[in-house]
Structure formats: C-alpha cells, structure tokens
Amino acid sequence: SRPSSWLHNHGLYNLIITSHALIMIFFMVMPVMMGGFGNWLVPLMLMVPDMHFPRLNNMSFWFVPNALILLAFSGFVEGGVGAGWTIYPPLTSIEFLGDPSMDLAIFALHLGGISSIAASLNFCSTAINMRQGQRWVHKIPMLPISLAITALLLIIAMPVLAGALTMLLLDRNFATSFFDPVGGGDPILFMHLF
C-alpha cells in the first residue's frame, strides 16, 4: 500500500497510519493487555483482594481515556498528525506540521506515559509486597512475575520516551535545536531515544 493509491490523498493516508499505530501501541497493547488483564489476573493469582495502591490504579485507569480522547482530537485539528507512528523529527518539525495537532498528540502520549508509569509502579509493588503468606518468588505464578518485569522495563523506558517527546515539543514551539541539524542538533538522537 502506498500513499495516494486508494485514498488519493497522502495526508489522509499518513493520518490513518499514524493514528492506527499510536492507538494500537500506546492505548491498546500497554493499557489493555498489560493494565487491564494484569489488574484482573494478578490479584487473583496472588490471592489478594486488590492491587497494592488502588487509588494509583484508579488514576492510571482514568488517564487512559483522557489521553485517547486528546489523541483522537488531534486527528481532527487542521491537517491532523500525519508524521508516521515513529514521529521522527524531520516529519514533525514546525515547518512540516505547522498546526497544533502534533502538540496535542505529544501531550496525549505524555498522559499515556504517566498512566503506564503509575500502573507499572502498582504492579511492581503488588508483586513484591502482597504475596500471600510471603511466598518465595519460585512459588509465585509466572504471570505476576512477567508483569512485574515488564513493569520494571516500562519504569525505565517511559521517562526516556517522555524526555524525547518533551525535547521534540521544545523544538517545535520554543526554537530549540535538539533534533534540528541546522542549529547543531542530531535527528538520529530521537531515533535512539524513541
């Protein structure tokens, strides 16, 4: 499939591809697969009534629909976010996407990242502190252990992604040059951070 093959509009094609990928990765795989099934199955497998921090769990849950609404709204602002799912800096620069749709998408990804970090902290805390009868790690089912390891990786990776998105936002709106080669920046740096 190519832009302009069946849609006859490359901007709409890029918008569909970008929105599909961002929704699937940041609002389907992470919150639903990890957060939804994890919140349902981890307390059952550890034989505890609830996650360790229920209010943090509630906060992480309610950030997801708000971020998803913000991301969906960014598709309707002027030309929409048509920079590809990797949102690489030459395609997301203010010269290429001058409308505020990319800024809204960056804010939506920040909210989704906050939600993922909060849920990850809750998973790690639940897996470590709420074992029934203080069972040893080798007697805990594999799903809570694998979710705790995944959560630990998310706790490490999400702040790096948030920093890269913040640098991209600063490049777009405050004339910094983290990723602009004209000002001495390196566009490859975003690829390494993303």
From TrEMBL:
Q: Which InterPro entries match?
A: Cyt_c_oxase-like_su1_dom, Cyt_c_oxase-like_su1_sf, Cyt_C_Oxase_1
The pathway this protein participates in, as annotated, is:
Energy metabolism; oxidative phosphorylation
Q: Which residues cross the membrane?
A: 12-42, 63-85, 105-124, 145-170
Q: What is the phylogenetic placement of the source species in the record?
A: Eukaryota, Metazoa, Spiralia, Lophotrochozoa, Mollusca
Query: Which UniProt keyword terms apply here?
Result: Copper, Electron transport, Heme, Iron, Membrane, Metal-binding, Mitochondrion, Mitochondrion inner membrane, Respiratory chain, Transmembrane, Transmembrane helix, Transport
The name this protein goes by in its record: Cytochrome c oxidase subunit 1
Q: Which reaction does it catalyse?
A: 4 Fe(II)-[cytochrome c] + O2 + 8 H(+)(in) = 4 Fe(III)-[cytochrome c] + 2 H2O + 4 H(+)(out)
General function of this protein: Component of the cytochrome c oxidase, the last enzyme in the mitochondrial electron transport chain which drives oxidative phosphorylation. The respiratory chain contains 3 multisubunit complexes succinate dehydrogenase (complex II, CII), ubiquinol-cytochrome c oxidoreductase (cytochrome b-c1 complex, complex III, CIII) and cytochrome c oxidase (complex IV, CIV), that cooperate to transfer electrons derived from NADH and succinate to molecular oxygen, creating an electrochemical gradient over the inner membrane that drives transmembrane transport and the ATP synthase.
Source organism (scientific name): Cerastoderma edule (Common cockle)
Q: What's this protein's family per the entry?
A: Belongs to the heme-copper respiratory oxidase family.
**Compartments in which it is found:** Mitochondrion inner membrane
This entry carries the following GO cellular component terms, namely: mitochondrial inner membrane
Is Aminoacyl-tRNA synthetase there in the keyword field?
no
Sequence ranges assigned to domain Cytochrome oxidase subunit I profile in this UniProt record = 1-194
What is the E.C. number? 7.1.1.9
Q: Does the keyword Heme apply?
A: yes
Q: Which GO terms describe its molecular function?
A: cytochrome-c oxidase activity; heme binding; metal ion binding
